[in-house]
Amino acid sequence: MRFLLATAALALIATPAAAADWWRASTDHFIVYSETSEEEAEQFAVELERFDEAMRYLRGIAKDAEPLAESAKLTVYQFGDVNDIGRLAGARGVAGFFIPRAGQSVAFVPAREARDRGLGARPDQDGALDAKTVLFHEYAHYFMYQHAAAAYPAWYREGFAEVYGTVELTDGGFRIGNPAKHRAAVLHHLNSYPVSRLLDPPEKMTYRDGAQIYAMGWLLSHYLTFSQERQGQLGKYLDLINAGKTSREAAEEAFGDLDRLNRDLDKYRRGRVQGIEVTFPDYRPPDAEVRPLSEAETGRMMLHITSSRGVDEDEAKRLVPDARALTERYPNSEPVLLAAMEAEFDAENDDRAEALARKILTIDDSAARAHIYLAKIAMRRAKDDPSQFLIARQEFAKANRLEPSNPVPLNGYYLTYRLAGETPPENALIALEQAYDHAPFASDIRTNLAHLLLTEGRNAEAIVVLGPLMNDPHAGKRGEKLRDLAEKIEQGDTAEAISELAPSLEPKEDGEESEVRKGK
Prior knowledge:
The protein is of the alpha+beta class. The chain is 54% helix and 8% strand. The chain has 23 helices and ten strands.
């Protein structure tokens, strides 16, 4: 997977992965690749599934009507220690991180403690974060954007994840509202940090500002969620932001006097932590299917992890020798061929990537990912040869038949018409709408839908779809541009917006694949 932002050089691919035991654990919503033991892999996957159950219960989200396709599940890689995770993320001290990506959302967490860090320490010891707390936090982000995509200020985005990330699983249910003990040191200095600065942060934030987004963000989210005296205010605040108000304006209208909020929040901090405990009658934990990885699967894991994280142009080229060595050693292993195919594609070796994709299909004609990459290769070739759009369209259609809920073929199928300069037929329009339903967090799909709505004269709907992008307090210049376009759309002038939002074969710097959420 090509990554739009350069990352630090990776040393992971040289790790002798075959020396470790790897396990694959699958549940309704997760796929876990774990460099631990069978029991630990199963427990970790089950705990993640139980966390999803708790989130659905608390947010009123019904169970899925149909089993999820694997492309819709969050894939979690549990390996190495915190130093390995930091190298993969390109930043020291990262205890885990998550990338929301249409058709392939991924998360990375450590499997063991680092010698110099003590990762295995519980969250209430030395302020450390364990892998489960980190991943619960990161999955809360994914859940928020999957089930309630909207514009969220940074303090609430992180505060929400901190409140839900500290869920404690019990024998027959869970408890939510536990203190975020890993934020205790920062919270100790809370009385000298004004809530107004949290709600309306400066353009140039200090380290202290960043720390309080997590710590004070947790406290304010906790207070507004569990305090009876301010029920309904949080919902009103978020509604105002998504209607175009600034965070400060929305806060003053929803919360009232901010100095009083500051005093009330400090009093709440000093009081007894509130929360909710839920116990289900006759509770039965979810099941996980666990199996060991084969020698070939184990051999390709670090290549697969690095590609799944995302690589820049130079890194992509460095992965190719390892990919080719693996295919020579395991010439008929579908997992190895899939990893090598992605590495060749990332390095823009399209002929080799195509040959690998076609070989995969001779081994497994139901391999949707091979069809997706054949389509991507054709789309890239279409820059010079427009006849390739038809090939891409056919391959996306084949992938869609194999994985109807995967948003990538749905979005790609629509783009084969739009980028070719053809009028998309009704089934292509429906495909884009379905892609949006499956991945509302994907900014490129959201933008494509807004563009389509504008071309159909559905201006008000287009503005609604753009809302989370243009009202995101951290969207920067892109957000300002979208807000300017929205004003013109409201006045009936859509020409500039249609031009600005039009799909392109060239990747955009603000695309959703450049987004990485890191847990510290």
